[in-house]
Write a structure and sequence with these properties.
single chain; alpha/beta; elongated
Length: about 450
C-alpha cells in the first residue's frame, strides 16, 4: 500500500508551496548531478516531457560530448540527445557554483565500496557540500544513489543545512532510488515505478509531483529510510538467489548434471519460483555492492546479517572457480596456465551493453595475470579498456578472427554478447571455457568446450 502524504495546509505562499505550484505547472528547471548510466537516462526522461535540464558532471569529456549532441552510452541514441541540445532544453556544465539555478536537483553519483567492503560516501558528501554552498530556499534535493538506511537524514541533510537553511522548511529533501537496467528493452526509465520517500510529508508531496511530471507511476513511502531499504531489499534478493545457483553450479558439474537444464525445468512451475542463472561472478553498479551497505549499517545495531554476507562471499568466489576450471582444462591438454595465451570474450558485466562497472571480467584478468597467463580480450561494445575503480589496464579489443582464435591456448567466454558468432568461435578455437552456457549442444562442442 502506498503512503499518501497529506496536502499542504499552509495559508500563505511559502518557497516550498511556490515550488510545488511551479512543478505542477511544469514551470521549473531540473538539475542532474552525475551524467552516467543513471543520470543521463533520467535527464532524457524529463527532457522528453519538455522539462529544461541542466546536467552537472566533473568529466569534461561528457560535457563536451553532450554539447555536440553525442551520446557516450551505447543504449542511448545520439539523435535523441541532439534534439534536446539543439533546442536549448538540455545543457551540461562542470561549474557546480550553478547548482542554485535549477529548482530541483537529482543526485546520481556513485556509491562504491572501500577495499574493506565498507560504504564509500565520498561522492555523496562532496556533492552535498557543493550544493550546500549555493542552496537557496525553494529547491528540492533528491538523492538517487543507492546507500544504507539513514544516509539521507544522517549524512546528506546536516551538510545541506550548514548554511542555515532548514530541510522541510526552506528546501525539500527526498530519497528516490534509481532503478536503471542498462540495455533492458522491455522497461525504460519512464515506465519503471518510482519509489520515493521524503523527510516529511511536504517533501514527499513535492517529490511525487516532481517525478510525476516524467514517470508513469510513483510509489510514495513513509520515510527516506523506507525508500533506502527498499532499494537494498531489491538487490539483496537478486544477490542471494544468484548466489544459490552459483553455489549449485560446481556441485552439479561434479555430479554430471546440467544446472541450466535444471533451472529450465524448475521454471515450468507456475508459482513459487523464478529463475536465476549462474555466471563468472557478479557485475554492475548495484548487486555486487549494495548488500554490503546494509551489512555495514547492521553492525551498528549488533544485528548479524550472515545470510547476506554468505551470498556475497559465494558470488565473489566465482572468478576463482572459473580460473581453477581454466587451469584444469589446460592441464588436461598438457599445458600450464603460466605463459598460456588466454583470449577473454566480454568485458561488459552483462550482454549487449557497454557498461563494465564492477565486471567480473576484470577480476578474471587479474587472477589470470597473477598466475602468469598472457591475457587479451575482445568486446564489440568496449573497444578500449578505461580506468575503473580498481583496475587500469592499457588494452584494446583484439579483433576476433580465425587467426586470433586459433592462436589462443584458451578462449574464455565471460559475457555472452549477441554479436558473437558462436559457431565461428567454436570452429576455430582450440579450447573454450564457457561461463554462460552458450555452447551447450552445439555441434563440435564435445571435447573442446568446458563449462565453468
Amino acid at each position: 500500500m502506498s503512503f499518501h502524504p497529506p496536502p499542504f495546509t499552509l495559508n500563505t505562499m511559502t518557497p516550498l508551496k511556490t515550488l510545488l505550484h511551479n512543478i505542477e505547472e511544469k514551470n521549473f528547471t531540473l538539475g542532474v548531478i552525475g551524467l552516467g548510466y543513471v543520470g543521463l537516462p533520467m535527464s532524457l526522461t524529463f527532457l522528453r516531457k519538455g522539462v529544461k535540464v541542466i546536467g552537472f558532471d566533473l568529466d569534461h569529456r561528457k560535457i563536451e560530448m553532450i554539447g555536440k549532441g553525442e551520446s557516450y552510452i551505447k543504449h542511448i541514441s545520439s539523435d535523441d540527445l541532439a534534439i534536446h541540445v539543439a533546442t536549448g532544453l538540455f545543457s551540461a556544465t562542470a561549474d557546480f557554483s550553478q547548482l542554485n539555478v535549477p529548482d530541483a536537483l537529482l543526485i546520481c553519483v556513485p556509491t562504491p565500496l572501500t577495499k574493506n567492503r565498507e560504504p564509500d560516501l565520498q561522492y555523496i558528501k562532496a556533492t552535498a557540500k557543493a550544493i550546500g554552498k549555493v542552496i537557496r530556499p525553494g529547491q528540492i534535493i533528491a538523492l538517487e544513489s543507492t546507500t544504507y538506511p539513514g544516509t539521507t537524514v544522517e549524512v546528506l541533510q546536516p551538510i545541506l543545512e550548514e548554511n542555515g537553511l532548514k530541510a522541510g522548511e526552506d528546501f525539500a529533501l527526498v530519497f528516490s532510488p534509481e532503478r536503471e537496467d542498462p540495455g533492458n528493452k522491455n522497461f525504460g526509465t519512464a515506465d519503471i515505478p518510482k519509489v520515493i520517500g521524503g523527510i516529511d510529508a511536504q517533501s514527499t508531496a513535492i517529490g511525487k509531483a516532481l517525478y510525476g511530471t516524467a514517470l508513469e507511476q510513483i510509489v510514495a513511502v513513509s520515510s527516506t529510510q523506507v525508500a533506502e531499504m527498499t532499494k537494498l531489499l531489491e538487490n539483496i534478493f537478486r544477490s542471494v538467489n544468484i548466489a544459490l545457483v552459483n553455489e549449485l553450479k560446481p556441485l552439479c558439474l561434479q555430479m554430471d548434471i546440467d544446472i541450466w537444464e535444471v533451472i529450465e525445468a524448475a521454471s515450468t512451475k507456475p508459482f513459487g519460483y523464478m529463475p536465476f542463472f549462474p555466471g563468472p561472478g557478479l557485475g554492475g553498479h548495484c548487486i555486487p555492492i549494495d548488500p554490503f551497505y546494509l551489512t555495514s549499517k547492521a553492525r551498528e545495531y549488533d544485528i548479524p546479517t550472515k545470510f547476506i554476507e554468505l551470498a556475497g562471499e559465494v558470488n565473489t568466489s566465482m572468478p576463482y572457480f572459473v580460473v581453477q576450471r581454466t587451469m584444469e582444462a589446460l592441464n588436461e591438454q598438457g599445458k600450464p596456465l603460466k605463459k598460456a595465451k588466454i583470449l577473454l570474450l566480454g568485458i561488459a558485466y552483462k550482454k549487449d551493453i557497454d557498461d563494465d562497472r564492477e565486471s567480473p571480467s576484470y577480476k578474471l584478468m587479474e587472477l589470470l595475470n597473477k598466475k602468469g597467463a598472457n591475457v587479451s580480450y575482445n568486446d564489440p561494445h568496449i573497444p578500449q579498456l578505461r580506468p575503473v575503480r580498481q583496475y587500469s589496464y592499457q588494452l584494446k579489443s583484439t579483433p576476433l578472427t580465425a587467426e586470433t582464435l586459433a592462436d589462443a591456448d584458451c578462449v574464455l567466454l565471460a559475457t555472452d554478447h549477441s554479436a558473437y558468432d558462436y559457431d565461428f568461435i567454436l570452429q576455430h578455437a582450440k579450447l573454450i571455457i564457457d561461463t554462460r552456457h552458450v555452447f551447450a549442444g552445439r555441434k563440435g562442442a564435445d571435447g573442446k568446450v568446458i563449462m565453468a
